[in-house]
Predict the structure.
Amino acid sequence: MSSLLHKVNFTKPRWQVFSRVLAAVFGGYALATVASLFIAQLLIYIIEKNQAIHISIMLTFLIYAGTAMWVFAVTSARQAWVGLLKLNAILLASTWLLMQFTGVSS
Amino acid sequence: MKDTFRQSMKWFHTWVGLVVGWVLFFIFITGSIGYFYKEVTHYMEPERPLINHQLSKSDMLDKAQQYMSIYASDVQAWDVFLPSSRDANLQVGWRHAPKEGESRGKYIKQVLDANTGQQVITRATGGGRSLYRMHYRLHYLETRLSYWIVGFCTMLMLLAVITGVVIHKKIFSDFFTFRAKKGLPGWLDSHNVLSVIALPFHFMITYSGLLFFPFIYMALSVSIQTNEQELNELMDEVYPSYAEVTPANTPAKMQSLSSLYEQTKTIWSDDKLELVEIYAANDINAHIRFSRGVTDITYNPSDEIVFNGVTGEIISEPERQYTVSSMIHNGFISLHEGQFSATIVRWLYFFTGLIGAAMIASGLVLWTTKRKSQQMKKPNGPDFGYRLVEQLNIGTIVGLPIAIASYFYGNRLLPVEMANRAEWEIHLLFISWALLLTYPAYRPKAKAWSEQLHLAAAVFIFMPVLNALTTDKHLGITLSHGDWLYAGFDLTMLAIGLTFAFAGFKFKKSQRNKTSQSKSAKTQRSNIKTTVDNELVLNKENSGVL
């Protein structure tokens, strides 16, 4: 097993690409989901809840597309993963904060 | 990924387009046909009577009502479809109560002979509907799974469209640059022109495609924010429907549809009635809704008039309520489907859809042309990946249209009494496609292109002949009757066949030129070097990875 791991060189471009694909597909999906929660919470200030959710869902596809492009634009796969984790954490925290103010439970 | 943002996006565009290009081509072709699915069904049920322009709507409505009172008396929701510019025949439909384990009952739709008011027995066929349903509901796969696959491909398409714009620095000047020379610049230019020419359409059709099942794709987000009851309320807001009519189970005599039709004439000045829906038929609670053909992108309540079916009074039924977000959502859906469009706009939809397919096809071919010279130099011949892409390109770009033609051939040639006939039409499509995908593996690629192009030309040009041999409705009859739906199909097949013939001719000519050119290859190579533009240099640098 360990000899197999030695044989596979994870710094090779193909593994870098594979890692980015995973980051875009799953990390991007997580970010799109969290972003939709965040947008819905923001919109609840101006429109009623169902519409806020509805609009956030429709926008989230564009966010997903933007995220996927970003994952393939940064210099390394590692940078993409770290960035995705940070953004997800920031958006989740902001959503939680907003919920404290609106008092709307999700 | 690369040194600059644009270079990274160029790489991304190439691979995002390649991995699902063939599925996207299938989605665009079957989707484009979908704009004419009713017309296709008209052709695939040749037992239907020829268009008769003389019949009165009153007369047809009463015949339909009589027919359903006899044959659908145990069912309480009826539909009458009147002849329209898209569907030439009188049709009736009703839905049976759901059986055990079904969420909805089976829907029966029958064609009536408007002269006699009797059913026309048509052959079992999937018609245009089965063909266009493949475009989002991949035929052999489970429903949910196919929605996810199509959704994933659509997302990659959206990414290809956006990155395509990003990497294209001279979007407008390139629009006027077409270097119809052979080889790379020609393919690159066609890809660019096809992309730019219909860019708003490509973006709209792709983004709105994602809006068909957004609550499936983003189910996690929605389930975090709503409980079951709230979700139902949300869905009612997103997809507004009519209030339900429940029968009181007290039989009552309904007004005749023709007398209600007379009333609609005093409200509607045009005569565009297309659909009559009857709820709680022959019951004291009977509701009858008359609808004109949809002509607006957004819902227009003045296209509907609802009657109390027993008294004949007009009921002001609560309209479907659209919120701002559901109006936007619904707007995208109707732009995608184009149900509102008149014949000419429908043709525009069809052609822009084909432009989309051609854009995808040219992108796929471009992938191979860019790598060709490099691959040919390899001591053991081209890589497996390269050969696979070439094979899939031939088998899909020319193979899929032939496979669709075999769907129509199946419709004419399979025995009428055959069991599972409609299903076999579809099997024929996929069997032919599989054969045409395999064939290029065993042929020199240039030969395979040429042979399949010629085969495509032959099958499409022969279609009207096959129709004349197997039905009593050849072009002479349909044209002289003014049945443009039926004749239009034959003529379109002919036009597609001639286009393939032209493409095959051009391809052969270009091959002949190439062999004569290769004799003076050395001078040729130095020429290319001097005329190569910046774009090409960039491409060469980028094509190394993977």
About this structure: The radius of gyration of chain A is 17 Å. Chain A has four helices and no strands.
